[in-house]
Amino acid sequence: QQQVKQSPQSLIVQKGGISIINCAYENTAFDYFPWYQQFPGKGPALLIAIRPDVSEKKEGRFTISFNKSAKQFSLHIMDSQPGDSATYFCAASLYSGNTGKLIFGQGTTLQVKP
Amino acid sequence: EPEVTQTPSHQVTQMGQEVILRCVPISNHLYFYWYRQILGQKVEFLVSFYNNEISEKSEIFDDQFSVERPDGSNFTLKIRSTKLEDSAMYFCATETGRWFFGPGTRLTVL
Description:
The complex is a heterodimer of chains A (114) and B (110).
Chain A: E1 4-7, E2 10-14, E3 19-25, E4 33-38, E5 45-50, E6 56-59, E7 62-67, E8 72-77, E9 86-96, E10 99-104, E11 108-113
Parallel strand pairs in A: 2-11
Antiparallel strand pairs in A: 1-3, 3-8, 4-5, 4-9, 6-7, 7-8, 9-10, 9-11
Chain B: E1 5-7, E2 10-13, E3 19-24, E4 31-37, E5 43-50, E6 53-57, E7 65-68, E8 75-79, E9 88-95, E10 99-101, E11 105-109
Parallel strand pairs in B: 2-11
Antiparallel strand pairs in B: 1-3, 3-8, 4-5, 4-9, 5-6, 7-8, 9-10, 9-11
């Protein structure tokens, strides 16, 4: 199964709150789990990424929590700001031969209210 | 940080016409990709390219699609006979363990 399931589809958070987005996967061959932020009309920009040998990674206000046994990972945005309003995609990479590919989740539209 | 660039930013074409989308990958990167995003949907893998040949392609990448690295710097995606359902954002990407995406080309097929 090459799907990555993402939830919720949309999220509204007050400024200063915590935004939490969840993803689940089936394929244990996935070996790299990035999160991308996308603003309207722009390409996906890498926010933070984790490999399955680590359970948590923090970069500034952004944290990935990774649960290998449950095949789940989540993005936490602390102290959410209106500038964080964007669409967030989780993804997982799968390698076959020389190249890999990213399998994206469905996306979460985050709105941070002032 | 080095960037992937894409041209044009927006392409409007008539159904049945051929289009070529262009990408300039990050210098010295060897692995190239095209992804597609239909409006409001997730980003989907189309094709990967390494050493001047396709490594993998998705079910979307049918005979109407082709890729080429014509001059050692550009990486192109050609759609031979566009269909309405080809309307989407097309993203070029390069990869060195992490993926770098270009800003995309919005393709509108009328």
